[in-house]
């Protein structure tokens, strides 16, 4: 009698992106500088995370740009409308669902 491998292993693996909140390790240290700046800011501010939100956003942007996490909207990550941000498009003035509706007003 032979036992062999379970059927799921013999069919192979399929790579899936991580679930939300699961971050692959940054083995090559691609975002280490951003992480270090953020952690230093947290230490200096007495773990007051609101003072370091812009650095948190830079770190997550680095991870998203390098495929270490799925790209997500800043609103979903709690990092929208940080002080010093340039407004991209105001939700108060959007009359359509397209984010690029500002270019049609100057053509007359």
TrEMBL record:
Any GO BP annotation: mitochondrial respiratory chain complex IV assembly
GO CC terms in record: mitochondrial intermembrane space
Keywords: Cytoplasm, Disulfide bond
Start and end residues of each CHCH domain: 31-65
Main location: cytoplasm
Cross-referenced Pfam families: CHCH
Locations listed in the record: Cytoplasm
Region: Disordered, residue numbers: 76-108
Protein task: Required for the assembly of mitochondrial cytochrome c oxidase.
Family of the protein in this entry: Belongs to the COX19 family.
PANTHER family found in the cross-reference section: CYTOCHROME C OXIDASE ASSEMBLY PROTEIN COX19 (PTHR21107:SF2)
Name assigned to this protein: CHCH domain-containing protein
């Amino acid at each position: 009698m032979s036992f062999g491998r379970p059927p799921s292993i013999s069919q192979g693996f399929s790579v899936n992106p991580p679930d939300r909140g699961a971050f692959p390790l940054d083995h090559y240290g691609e975002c280490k500088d951003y992480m270090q700046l953020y952690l230093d800011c947290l230490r200096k501010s007495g773990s007051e995370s609101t003072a370091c939100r812009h650095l948190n956003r830079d770190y997550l942007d680095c991870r998203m740009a390098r495929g270490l996490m799925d790209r997500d909207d800043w609103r979903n990550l709690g990092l929208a409308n940080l002080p010093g941000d340039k407004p991209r498009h105001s939700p108060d003035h959007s009359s359509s669902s397209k984010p690029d509706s500002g270019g049609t007003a100057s053509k007359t």
